[in-house]
Amino acid sequence: MTMGILIPFLFLLWIVVVAVVVVVLLVARKRRGGKGEEQARQSDTSDTLGEVLKAHRKRCGMTQEFVAEAVGVSCQAVSKWESGLSCPSTANLLTLAKLYGVSMEKLLRQAEAERRDTQAE
Question: Model-level pTM?
Answer without folding.
Answer: 0.60
